[in-house]
Amino acid sequence: MVDYTEHFLEDGDVIEMNLMGTAKVKKYLAGGGQGQVYLVDYNGRDMALKWYGPGGMGVNPQKFYDNIEHNVEKGAPSGEFLWPKDISKWRNGTFGYVMELIPPEYKEVSEYMLKKATFSSFLPAVGACLRIANAFRILHDKGYSYQDINMGNFAIDPKRGRVLICDCDNVAPVDTVTGVIGTPRFMAPEVVTGKTMPNSLTDRFSMAVLFFMLLFRTHPLEGKRYLSARGMTAELEMLSYGTDPLFVMDPDDSSNGPDRNLTPNIYCFWDPIPGYVREIFLQAFSQKGLKMPNARPSENAWMQALARFRSDIVQCSCGNDIFLKDIKNCICDGCGKKIPIPYVLSLDSYPIPGVPGRVIYRCQFGTGNPETAIEPIATVLSNTEDPTQVGIINREEKIWNVITPSNKVVKIQKEGVVPMKAGLQIDTSAGTIRMEDNTAS
Ligand SMILES: [Zn+2]
Q1: For residue 104, how far is its CA from the centre of ligand 1 (angstroms)?
Q2: Helix (H) or strand (E) holding 393
Q3: Beta strand pairing status for 409-412 and 400-403?
Q4: 339 CA distance to ligand 1 middle (Å)
Q5: DSSP-derived 3-state class of residue 235
Q6: Every domain range in the chain assigned CATH 2.60.200.20
Q7: How far is the CA of 313 from the centre of ligand 1 (A)?
Q8: What is the pLDDT of residue 1?
Q9: Is 183 or 46 the better-scoring residue by pLDDT?
Q10: Residues of the chain with CATH 1.10.510.10
Q11: Helices 122-141 and 299-311: angle between axes, nearest 10 degrees
Q12: Cβ-based neighbours of 307, under 8 Å, separated by 6 or more
């Protein structure tokens, strides 16, 4: 990695592009290890241009160029990827590519870790993890691996949990060696020890680390054993992330357990999170998951846990997020108030609280096509004029059949509302939602 002191391009430079026209440099934006990013006018649109410095193109610059050119042709796997849109022609032994600009409301994961950015609640944080899992499911299904998941490569909108996955220039078809091995603390143990190069199973490890950090603001392998060491040595690094990794919450070995002062969030949130979320982290960071890449939870398994987790987060009027344990008796652990949940929505596999803020995704009815898995089927909202009136909105193109307790069928169009009423059954394109009374003991 080199940090460049000079700007490679001047304002006003006109770069010839491969697919279409030119990119005219407007302003230098940022620098990094591989190159620099500029604001450009790409055929009349403001976009970002990443321009490589000497040594920024790996050991084989032509191969690096060909891979990006191929990715431009194939197009983005999903809307989350800030994908190369066009590549420049070679210029003085180097080149660049254009991509969309990151909107200013999006913040890097590293900013969340440093508390320079905060999520408005757990809902967008979990929603962001869900989108990331889905994006990687699609990417891996298409035969690519990302190879360098780390805190700097994800920009997330703190209110809505929308995600942009940056630095897609290292994305390559599985079994292509790009020369990239990843970023310390995020590389899978078998990459750290040099046994393998990054692939889709090492991506799964790095993704689980990212999720753990987003939800607990601490690293899953940095417990007492790591924190009590005086200064980081190469040996300790190899031990902690490579040869002998140990999860901070390992149920059988507490020698790398959490530290109450240095990693307080894990104390606050590990026990309250739903059991099925603890389970998937335990699977990802068990000795088996750490040492046997095939034993790691799949992207789809993550999506199932995360979509359900998002449904199980209820917000109290005091501002606290509650992770639902008992749907009959939801008590805020912040202010002690009981949160009313008058209706439950029963999906085929589990019930969720029928309170505002719920989004029911297609994947909550079972594994489906990854392209539509996180499409919202329905959302629960309260009436803006009378917040006690709560209803379910049809978010899909399909007209719903709503069956009343007396077996009448009512048709509900897209954006139409079904008011909460016990005994109603909604037939969506993905499955059935049943509204049930939750007040009877
Ligand atoms: Zn409260």
Answers
A1: 32
A2: strand 390-394
A3: antiparallel
A4: 8
A5: helix
A6: 342-437
A7: 13
A8: 47
A9: 46
A10: 107-303
A11: 160
A12: 130, 361, 363, 364, 374
**Residue 331 alpha carbon to ligand 1 centre in Å:** 8
Q: Which CATH code, of 1.10.510.10, 3.20.20.140, 3.60.20.10, 1.10.8.640, is assigned to 107-303?
A: 1.10.510.10
Q: Output the CA 184–ligand 1 centroid distance in Å.
A: 39
Distance 314 CA to ligand 1 centre (A): 10
Domain with CATH 3.30.200.20 in the chain: 14-99
Alpha carbon of 434 to ligand 1 centroid (Å): 28
CA dihedral 168, 172, 174, 178 (to 10 degrees): -110
Give 321 Cα–ligand 1 centroid separation in angstroms.
8
Question: Which of 135-139, 208-212, 226-230 is predicted least confidently?
Answer: 226-230
Instruction: Tell me how far the alpha carbon of residue 320 lies from the centroid of ligand 1, in angstroms.
Output: 5
- CA–centroid distance, 303 to ligand 1, in Å, is 28
pLDDT tens track for 31-82: 877 899 999 999 999 999 999 998 888 888 999 999 999 999 999 999 999 9
Query: Cα(first)–Cα(last) distance of the chain, in Å?
Result: 63
Whether 15 contacts 96, CB under 8 Å: yes
Tell me the CATH architecture of domain 14-99. 2-Layer Sandwich (3.30)
What are the start-end ranges of the E strands in 55-214?
86-87, 96-99, 107-108, 144-145, 154-156, 163-165, 172-173
Query: CATH number of the domain at 342-437, please?
Result: 2.60.200.20
7 Cα–ligand 1 center, Å: 52
For 284, the enclosing helix (H) or strand (E) is: helix 275-284
The single residue listed with the structure tokens 């959302």 is 379
Digit-coded pLDDT (tens) for 278-290? 999 999 999 999 9
Q: What is the pLDDT of residues 307-360, one digit of tens each?
A: 999 999 999 999 999 999 889 999 998 999 999 999 999 999 999 999 999 999
Find the 427 Cα to ligand 1 centroid distance in Å: 34
Distance in angstroms (rounded) separating the CA atoms of residues 143 and 74: 12
pLDDT digits (tens, 9 = 90+) for 60-72: 899 999 999 999 9
User: Using one digit for the tens of pLDDT, what is the confidence trace for 146-168?
Assistant: 988 999 899 999 999 999 999 88
3-class secondary structure, 296: coil
Angle at 381 between CA 377 and CA 382, to 5 degrees: 160
